[in-house]
Amino acid sequence: MSGLTETQLASFKENGYLVLPDYLSAEEVTSLLSETNKLLNDFPLESHPLTQFTTGDESAAHVGDSYFLNSGDKIRFFFEPDAFSTEPDPLTGRPALLKPKNRAVNKIGHSLHTLSPPFKAISLNERNAAVARSLGFVDPRVLQSMVICKQPSIGGAVPSHRDSEFLYTDPPSAVGWWYALQDAGPVNGTLGMYKGSHTGRKGGHITRRFVRKESGGTEFVENTGPALPRGMEEEKSEEVDDSELEILDIKAGSLVLIHGNVLHKSEKNTSLNSRYAYTFHVIEGAEGWEYDGRNWLQPPAGGFSKLEA
């Protein structure tokens, strides 16, 4: 297991992301889709708090109930806001779903890599460890694993963001592993990546943080710690514009590596096809990098999972 080639690594360092086609076999994709559908069909709706998830923007209200904040070592289900009627169910008084539950979920998270055998098998393995080592990780740790569903006609847009805003280490170290379980293209809300926007020259600084509020819930706050990963140059920052936006066309089975400082987004899925993807993040667990205690996601007993077979 040799990890990335020199050419692949150079592309990742230049652009802030890298698409690796056919990273998963057809059998692995089928296994993960089967597990996803089983989870979506089997969870009990009657006892669910019907927590909705939206990334929103800095001025919007953010999810922050206990069901969400305590999900780091569990498998939990978060709904699309557009899956609900504006009027409550007259019999129960609860929000009324407009879609079957398996077509109403925004995402499943956040510890599939420890609690679901099929997802664990393609997460904690030597192949991914070799990729992490080639990216420079010394003690790679896996956290925040989830299936993002992008449901047909209602899968919400995700505004431009940088992943290290949500999983901050001092200094920043996060990298996302994003696996397409179904084809992802412009019509069903694929990833849009701003080339080079992870660098200091292109404004790749982590200037805000998504944290737990002392009074409960979550919020964005100004980042007062290091804004760039170790070894990345502070350069005169230029504006990033849409000429540097690449709308990816990703085939099922592909892996997209996403630098924690690269700006990226996705549009609403207005098509009739879902866009299932599995993603987890890796942070540096070695001495000299500190996972912040204000992050919305906090480590379980025993810490985050080591990335190894």
From TrEMBL:
<dbReference type="InterPro" id="IPR008775">
    <property type="entry name" value="Phytyl_CoA_dOase-like"/>
</dbReference>
<comment type="similarity">
    <text>Belongs to the PhyH family.</text>
</comment>
<keyword id="KW-0479">Metal-binding</keyword>
<keyword id="KW-0408">Iron</keyword>
<dbReference type="GO" id="GO:0046872">
    <property type="term" value="F:metal ion binding"/>
</dbReference>
<dbReference type="Pfam" id="PF05721">
    <property type="entry name" value="PhyH"/>
</dbReference>
<protein>
    <recommendedName>
        <fullName>Phytanoyl-CoA dioxygenase family protein</fullName>
    </recommendedName>
</protein>
